[in-house]
User: What shape does this take?
Amino acid sequence: MEGPPRFVPSPGAEFPEPWDQAAADWLVGKYALVGIAFVGRDGERSGQYHGRIVSADPQAGITIECEGGSKGETLVMPPATGWFGHAHPGEYKLKATGEVVINPDVVTTWRIEQGGSA
Assistant: This one.
């Protein structure tokens, strides 16, 4: 299985969303379910990850220690606290692995366009 992506800002660039320190503080320790669609000229592929948010920093991003099929991997999301929403209670089945995540605290979904996709 391919490891989780790491989002790296361009040198000198800031993420376009304002940083919310109170939201960042609240996120740390929460269990997150993350969906990512990678869209390129060859089509679309998706990845699903879950784990505990261990840090949130306006420069370094939001760091998640993955569990399940990606256990031992670290997922680093952009510093965009507003892209994490409260998860509805229940069971979430991951399409790619069949893993079931029960009652995550937060969810976030990203679409990444790669290589000049349409």
